[in-house]
Amino acid sequence: MKLIPVIDLKNGQVVAARQGRRDTYEPLVSPLCPSSQLDEVATAILRRYPVESLYIADLNAIAGDGDHVDQIEQLHRRHPTPRLWVDSGLTALDRLAALVRPVLGSESLESLDQLAELRARYPDAVLSLDYRGEQPLGPAGLAANPALWPDDVILMTLARVGSAQGPDLDRLAALRRLAPSHRIHAAGGVRSPADLERLDALGIAGALVATALHQGHIPAARITQ
Prior knowledge:
The chain contains nine helices and eleven strands. It is α/β, with parallel strands linked by helices. Pathway: Amino-acid biosynthesis.
C-alpha cells in the first residue's frame, strides 16, 4: 500500500489541518522542521520519507481566495520527484497539469458534465470524494456511481483529518464493495502502523497521511514498504 504525505497550504504557509474546519488551521509546528514554509517542510518530509508522491491541498485556491501556484511550481523544480498530487480547487489546471497530477475535489465540482470534461482533458486526474459528516460534497449522484470516476479515487473524510480518530473504515469498505476495480486511497484519521494494516486488509491502495508522520507515529521503514 502506498503512503502519500499531505501538505496543506493556506496564506503562504503549511498549516496543520483539523477536521476540515479550515478557518481554524494554524501554521504547522512539526518536530521534522522548524519552518512552516512549503519548500522547507517538503524537503524535511522527503529527507525522512523517500516517498513516490506528495499530496498538496491549496486551500486558498479551493476557497476561491488566491492560490499557491507559483510556490507549487517552484517546489516541482526543486524536487522533480516525487510526483505531486495537487488539489487546487480547479484553479490553474492547464498551468499545473504539465507538472503535477491534478486532484479533482468533489466539493469544487459544479456538475457531472464538468467532471466528464475535466477527465477528458486531464486523463491522469485523481477524483477526491469529499465528505463532511455523512454528507457527500459535490454533484448529486457522483458518490454512488463509479462509472463516472477515474481509476484513482480518494475518500476524503474531512471530520477525521488531524483528529486521531482512525480512518473511516466502514465507508472505505463500502466504497471497495461499490468499486472493486478502482484504486481507493484513504484520507483522514490514520494514526499508526496498525491503521495501515487495517487499510491494507481492506484492499485500500494508498493512504494520505500528515499528522502521524509529523508526530513520528509511523516509522520511515514503514512508509517505504
